[in-house]
Amino acid sequence: MSPARHRTPARGPQTAGAAQATTPRARRLVRAALVGVATGAAVVVIALLVREQWPPLVQLDELAVTEGAAFAAQHPGLLRALITWQWAFLAVHLLVPVGAICLVYWWRTGSTTRTWWALTTILTAWGLSNLLKELVRRARPVLDQPVESAGGFSFPSGHAANTAAMTTALVVLVWPSLRSRAMRAAAVAGAVVLTVATGVDRVMLGVHYPSDVVAGLLFGVGLVLASYLAYQHWSAPRREPGTSA
What we know:
Elements: H1 13-51, H2 55-73, H3 76-88, H4 91-109, H5 112-136, H6 158-174, H7 181-204, H8 210-235
Helix pairs in contact: 1-8, 3-7, 4-5, 4-6, 5-6, 5-8, 6-7, 6-8, 7-8
Membrane topology: Multi-pass membrane protein
Region (Disordered): 1-23
Organism: Promicromonospora kroppenstedtii
């Protein structure tokens, strides 16, 4: 009589169903962690280069700010537009229209958790960008003939970080409601234009270095994407084992 063979119990439908339901959620969480780590690493690298006064970065920063402010000073109409843009895109001023868009989205879709995700992420980005300023404590540019002044520290650009976070969060928020490719392309293009224009505004007014702006953009976009992937993980419906999708 042959010895009994050890057999691995077959995976029943309940086990398979649970595994299939868990795997996508786990992948979302891993992606969220990877995006968060990559964003943090990029911002930290730029911050270290700033703190160590890496010559190529310093030279590029100084040249861009000097030339940008000089160009703005030579064109009074452009300078007035830059100053107006600076005022309009302060985070405290953007919260009103952004909050209104979120409210309209909630009213039309009834998606409470998604709306709260957007608002919470935007406010978190605002708070963390201010915290980063205090940690790095980079002085603002000093020009012989300044065209504008600003208080506080320079790295990262709060205007750039908050505009990037708000526009990215709004695009992600309304994305399921944009039914055509044209609408989605227009939403992304609008977000890119507003964010890039805000970054250019900060450099041409001579109140931020390009590295401040780049760090702010990376921070704002990366934080929102990582937050959304985490939100997808926690908000994904859990299927009961053994039930069909």
